[in-house]
Design a protein that fits this description.
The chain is of the alpha/beta class and 373 residues long. It has helices at 12-15, 28-39, 51-60, 82-86, 101-108, 133-140, 157-161, 175-184, 198-221, 225-245, 250-253, 256-267, 272-281, 286-292, 298-312, 318-327, 360-369, and strands spanning 4-5, 20-24, 43-47, 77-79, 91-94, 117-120, 148-152, 166-172, 190-195. It is globular, with a radius of gyration of 20 Å. The structure holds 1,4-dihydronicotinamide adenine dinucleotide (NAI) and 1,3-dihydroxyacetonephosphate (13P).
Length: 373
């Protein structure tokens, strides 16, 4: 699916005048996205679980724990009262950890407007059910696909909070709603693009975290750029095959929400998944790594459910499998590579034709034509 930019840029404040939106979750991404929306001209209220965080944002226009040194827009409002944040909000952006999403949705349900659109900014899957966040929303609330959206892309929070330019893909099964979301978040330094491939957009964000863990691990071992380039390239093939088998359009994975986010997360020392991988590659256990990380590293929780889904769909994900083996202490970090060994550790050549998985595009084209894969 081609991802299209919304056409106008520069007059965001006028376009969004009077648009009331809510952000649920005041960690680094929720707070940054609230700033983007406010700078785009929306009337934004952010909900923080802890009243002292809401108070700091509301009064000092700071969130010193998650975005040190960043001044937030004067017009940004904050509260820890769910009824207040949701009042009159047509777009509700969700930026909570994936494992608490279901409970957060249950908590907000009584205050939701019947016309509100729920937009996930979250890049993880629910461990107990293997569901993506849009599926958790549909499973928890009585809302149809035209009221469920996703925003995803190369979006390291601190860089965006410093107004360094980038973009993100706003996705919804209903193109008009995707356009509404993209319009709401298009600020001078953030451009919204649209597509209707919710599965691909959402899975891009989930799967790149797993490849970033692998990159962190080999970085921690001390390997150089060849290893990392091979893992990124083969990792993208793994991501694309898994996403297509899940119903995504492969072109989404080569866009901002796939390759774009993969590059940023694999390259940036600010990425928590990359950092967690690096600590593991340096020899810290998973528990020690969790203790050192003060923030959410979604990839660690997503490894097992993604592999479970891959098994069900008959997809091989050798890099993600190796990440799991390293996390479980069944493989030494130094042995992780881009699809180099069999399960018993014997190096194997790759004998398929071409750079990608044989049959991937044929299967996709056949599906679009309605024929069997
Ligand atoms: N930080 C980033 O650069 C980006 C993060 N994301 C995604 O956004 C999501 C949120 O991540 P961050 O804001 O970065 O995490 P964070 O670690 O900075 O903050 C997490 C927030 O969730 C809150 N929280 C913890 N338990 C909660 C509960 N039971 N109910 C409600 N809130 C709870 C914490 O108090 C904190 O405010 C993740 O899925 C992440 O993958 C997506 C794009 C960029
Ligand atoms: O999703 C992100 C960048 O797009 C943030 O990645 P981390 O969660 O690894 O920090």
């Amino acid at each position: 699916m081609s991802t299209r930019p919304i056409p106008v840029i520069g007059e965001s404040a006028k376009r969004n005048r009077g648009r009331r939106v809510a952000v649920i979750g005041a960690g680094s991404w929720g707070t940054t996205f609230a700033k983007v929306l406010a700078d785009a001209g929306c009337d934004v209220t952010i909900w923080a679980r802890r009243p002292e965080v809401a108070q700091e944002i509301q009064v000092a226009k700071r969130n010193s724990q998650y975005l040190p040194g960043i001044n937030l827009p004067k017009g940004l409002k904050a509260t820890s009262d769910l009824a207040q944040v949701l009042r009159g909000a047509r777009l509700v952006f969700l930026a909570v950890p994936s494992q608490t999403m279901r409970q957060n949705l249950i908590d907000i349900e009584p205050y939701l407007d019947r016309r509100s659109v729920l937009v996930s900014l979250v890049k993880g899957v629910e461990k107990t059910t293997t569901m993506r966040m849009s599926e958790v929303i549909a499973d928890t609330l009585d809302v149809g696909p035209e009221r469920i959206g996703v925003v995803s892309g190369p979006n390291i929070a601190l860089e965006i909070a410093k107004e360094q330019p980038t973009g993100g893909v706003a996705s919804c099964a209903d193109l008009q709603v995707a356009q509404e979301i993209a319009t709401a978040c298009t600020a001078p330094y953030f451009r919204g693009y649209v597509n209707t491939d919710v599965i691909g957009t959402e899975l891009g964000g989930v799967l790149k975290n797993l490849i970033a863990l692998a990159i962190g691990i080999v970085d921690g071992v001390g390997y150089g750029e060849n290893t990392k380039a091979a893992i990124i390239t083969r990792g993208l093939a793994e991501m694309t095959e898994f996403a297509v088998a899940s119903g995504a359009d492969p072109t989404t994975l080569s866009g901002l929400a796939g390759l774009g986010d993969l590059i940023t997360t694999c390259q940036s020392p600010l990425s928590r998944n990359n950092t967690a991988g690096r600590l593991i590659g340096q020899g810290y256990t998973q528990e020690e790594t969790r203790e050192q990380m003060q923030q959410v590293a979604e990839g660690i929780t997503s490894v097992s459910p993604v592999l479970e889904l891959a098994r069900e769909r008959g997809i091989e994900m050798p890099i993600v499998q190796q990440v799991q083996m390293v996390l479980q202490g069944r493989m030494a970090p130094k042995d992780l590579g881009p699809h180099l060994t069999t399960e018993d550790g014997v190096p194997q050549p790759e004998l398929s034709l071409g750079t990608d998985r044989p049959g991937l595009w044929r299967r996709f084209v056949n599906r679009m034509k309605g024929t069997a894969a």
